[in-house]
């Protein structure tokens, strides 16, 4: 069994958990509030911006020219996607690069961003790529799942989980090419390095669930502070 096959086998429970999450179900049924949608939109665009640095690290640490070209192509898509996204945001949301940098990052988003950024210091495609590829894979698989459901057709729900097409699917799509790279890099890696790569992928899958959960519950740093200082086991000042 290749490393990517092993990863995907162990990732299946995480995929099922994401499919069942109330936020994902809310997308399907059109049952999310404007506040929940706004929270997700704002945190997600900031998260996508953070991925620019991760993709840059993949380009810089590529072990073949083909890898570098693939990651560069994905980076070009990322930047154009972010630019288009910013242009259509309302004034209450980030609408240019400067305001995007000033977005308040809420707890789970920060944990996920730091999880991905921590792999950069390894200078290893095998360790960096799983942190990024997991979210890509999860989003595409959730898109396949919701396509089998009776979902609402109205916006903004219809645009959620719509990352598909030749760019991501099929043997030449990003997802398969990312797994091919992981398997190629695993050939010269130790068992410990392979296990670390797998666990990085699975942690990203877990954090994807918590990202939905934070948006569904509108979790902020104030909530964490109240829980710590005034909740069970906390102290009241």
UniProtKB/TrEMBL annotation:
UniProt key word Hydrolase: yes
The keyword Isomerase is annotated on this UniProt entry: no
Pathway: Cofactor biosynthesis; thiamine diphosphate biosynthesis
Enzyme class: hydrolase
Highest taxon, organism lineage: Bacteria
Chemical reaction(s) catalysed: thiamine + H2O = 5-(2-hydroxyethyl)-4-methylthiazole + 4-amino-5-hydroxymethyl-2-methylpyrimidine + H(+); 4-amino-5-aminomethyl-2-methylpyrimidine + H2O = 4-amino-5-hydroxymethyl-2-methylpyrimidine + NH4(+)
EC numbers for this chain: 3.5.99.2
Any Gene Ontology biological process: thiamine diphosphate biosynthetic process
Keywords annotated in UniProt: Hydrolase, Thiamine biosynthesis
Pfam families: TENA_THI-4 (PF03070)
UniProt GO molecular function: thiaminase activity
InterPro entries in alphabetical order: Haem_Oase-like_multi-hlx, Thiaminase-2/PQQC, Thiamine_Salvage_TenA
Domain Thiaminase-2/PQQC positions: 18-217
Quaternary structure, from the entry: Homotetramer.
Family: Belongs to the TenA family.
Protein name: Aminopyrimidine aminohydrolase
Organism the protein comes from: Lentilactobacillus buchneri subsp. silagei CD034
